[in-house]
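Figure 6 in text form: structure in, sequence out.
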């Protein structure tokens, strides 16, 4: 297959993988073009350089200013994606955090709906309940989307407004989880949490929305890699362990 000079090579690799899957995996259908407006993203590699903190030089695009300060590191490739009307750039690099002095040896953490985390030392962290706080607004925005004509500019504006509202909810939830998990990993040498069956808990239709709003899986995921960063130990207790009988 001949490619046009300057075409993103990752797109051709993705196309090759799609055809291989189509020919070798029965469940994979014929490759389809990505539809514009849904999961917009592209991959760039080549001469990429970070300039003065929040400027990055990209091939075929040029110098782009970012909202956040970028780390001073070598970048080989980037993924640029669009979400809720905003563009994001992501890349991998080696991060070497320094172990922090611990103020406590061991702490147990019990996550819940009313209190996001209840620690064994008596501290409680309230649940921000981001989705519950924004539910009425999200419902109103969703109703406006449903009333707009499909394919119209007004519908596109309403969809964008709804997506931004959902993004804000996700950011509020993630911010609360990051603050909690960072504090736990930085200040305690050993952290004990329960191995929750989140997928099973979500089958309770009366509490599914509240459970999903807590982000239990994300809490465990963040705590796992942050304990590695700050030289802490994460202990996951068996969900069937009879701790109340000790």
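Output sequence:
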């Amino acid at each position: 297959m001949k490619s046009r000079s300057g075409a993103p090579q990752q797109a051709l690799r993705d196309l090759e993988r799609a055809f291989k899957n189509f020919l070798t995996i029965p469940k994979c259908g014929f490759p389809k073009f990505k539809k514009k407006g849904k999961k917009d993203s592209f991959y760039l590699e080549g001469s990429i350089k970070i300039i003065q903190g929040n400027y990055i030089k990209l091939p075929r695009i040029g110098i782009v200013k970012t909202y956040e300060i970028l780390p001073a590191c070598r970048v080989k490739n980037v993924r640029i994606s669009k979400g809720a009307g905003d563009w994001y750039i992501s890349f991998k690099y080696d991060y070497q955090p320094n172990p922090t002095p611990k103020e406590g040896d061991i702490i147990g953490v019990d996550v819940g709906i009313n209190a996001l985390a209840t620690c064994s030392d008596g501290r409680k962290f309230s649940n921000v309940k981001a989705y519950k706080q924004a539910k009425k607004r999200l419902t109103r925005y969703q109703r406006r989307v449903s009333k707009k004509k499909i394919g119209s500019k007004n519908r596109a504006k309403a969809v964008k407004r709804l997506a931004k509202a959902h993004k804000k909810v996700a950011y509020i939830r993630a911010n609360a989880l990051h603050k909690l998990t960072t504090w736990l990993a930085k200040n305690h040498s050993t952290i004990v949490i329960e191995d929750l069956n989140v997928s099973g808990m979500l089958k309770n239709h009366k509490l599914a929305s509240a459970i999903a709003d807590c982000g239990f899986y994300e809490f465990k995921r963040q705590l796992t890699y942050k304990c590695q960063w700050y030289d802490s130990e994460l202990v996951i207790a068996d969900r069937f362990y009879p701790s109340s009988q000790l």
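Caption detail: The chain has two domains: 6-90, 104-237.
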